[in-house]
Amino acid sequence: MSTLIKKEGFSYAFNPLACESCQGKCCTGESGYIYVNKTEIEKIANHLELDVRDFVNKYLFKKMYKYSIKEKKVGDSYECIFYDALSNGCTIYEARPIQCKTFPFWDYYKKRVDELKLECPGITNV
Which of 70, 71, 79, 126 is 20 to 30 A from 28, alpha carbon to alpha carbon? Predict the structure, then answer.
């Protein structure tokens, strides 16, 4: 049985087994935005057993009219505040936002597969 994940409209597949050894390249690297909507905010706050307002104040920042998860600077890199380098995993995995759930199948990468392959070792040609 194949572990490859394919999605219609994408010229590549994803092998989630690569996550075990990649050191969270999708959660670290260049600074960026991890946008969350109201439902996701409530879900993550609940997962962390926090009041929504406390969660927002501690873990999010506002970018224009949207909220994004904070990052922490580690050396020359940035990491999602919920990335745990020791376990190479996400501390809110069960409640992670849709942006994280849908990676690497983002429209942005449809025409940038070579860029994606540099970021994600689980990408293979279909």
Answer: 126
Report pLDDT digits (tens) over 30-75. Answer: 999 999 999 999 999 999 999 999 999 999 999 999 999 999 999 9
Residue-wise pLDDT tens digits, 73-100: 999 999 999 999 888 899 999 999 999 9
Bridge partners (DSSP) of residue 121 are: none
CA dihedral (2, 7, 124, 14) positive or negative? negative
Report the alpha-carbon angle 63-69-74, nearest 5: 110
* C-alpha distance across the termini of the chain, in Å: 16
